[in-house]
Every structure is written in structure tokens, then in C-alpha cells.
Amino acid sequence: MSGSSRHLSRRAVVQALYQWEMTQQSRLEIEKYFLSDDSLKKSDTEYFHELIREIPRLAKDIDTHLAPYIDRDIALVDPIERAVLRLATYEMLHHPEIPYRVVLNEAIELSRTFGSENSYRFVNGILDKLGADIRSIEAAAGQ
Q1: Cα–Cα distance for residue pair 122/23, rounded to 1 Å
Q2: How would you classify residue 142: left for phi > 0, otherwise alpha for psi between -120 and 50, otherwise beta?
Q3: Which domains are present in the chain?
Q4: Per-residue DSSP letters for 46-98?
Q5: Average pLDDT for residues 58-62, to the nearest whole number?
């Protein structure tokens, strides 16, 4: 799948994770809603399925990885920023084939698209430190 189809999947996942947190709807209801939308036709739907299934399931573990890098409880982080951080952390932990810089750049772009004016700076600062630890060899090589 192309990078743009994965980007479309990530965009939808950020929105779906936001909806999941704000409405307390089931992941399956949200997934069904998003898959009925024509805007996902050009996305990597398999990747969308994986992300929307696994990120909520692993949210506590993901949050544990994020906690040392955030200056407040994860529950106090803006819901959009939290969705982007969880998505990027999941990719860093479970998709080593996706370069660290790609994960970081996607997260920054999603933060600029959906977050507040400076949320990309907050997300970048956290993920840069997290990525340097999780992907230390790759980060040290400047990839």
C-alpha cells in the first residue's frame, strides 16, 4: 500500500479514537461508521482495522510508555493530542518497518490538521524523546 493510503487510514483513526473517547461508543460501532464513509475508499482499510482494533485494546500499555514523557496525567492531555500520541506510540512499538521519522512526521501533520495551534509542538517534543528511547539505534543513526 502507498504512503498516502496509510496517511488516510491514520487520519481516520485519529478521528475514530477521538470519537471513541468522547462518546464511549463501542469500537465496532465506530469502525462500522468510518468504513461506511466514502472518504476511506482510498485508504489502507486493513491498516485502519488493525489500528482501530489494537490501539483501544492496548491503550493502557501505550499510556504507560507515554507517561514518562508527559508532564501531566494522560487523561488531562487534549483528546486529539492523546489520539495522535497513542497512534504514533503504537506504530513505534508494533511497526518497526515504519521508519521513526515517518511516524514522527505523520504525527506532527495530524496534530496540525486536527489539534490546536501549537499541539504539534507538544506532540513532537514527546514523540521525539519517546522515539529516541524506543528506536534508539534508528534515532542515533539519524534515520
Answers
A1: 25
A2: left
A3: 3-140 (1.10.940.10)
A4: HHHHHHHHHHHHTHHHHHHHHGGG-SS-GGGS-HHHHHHHHHHHHHHHH-TTS
A5: 97
Q: Is the dihedral of CA 68, 74, 80, 83 positive or negative?
A: positive
Return the residue matching grid coordinates 485494546.
57
Q: Does the pTM of the predicted model rise above 0.85? A: yes
Distances (CA, A) of 136 to 47, 96, 130, 131, 139: 25, 12, 9, 7, 5
Tell me what the mean pLDDT of segment 102-119 comes to.
95
Report the Cα 88 to chain-centroid distance in Å. 4
**134: nearest Cα among 9, 74, 126, 75:** 126
Report the C-alpha gap between 110 and 81 in whole angstroms: 9
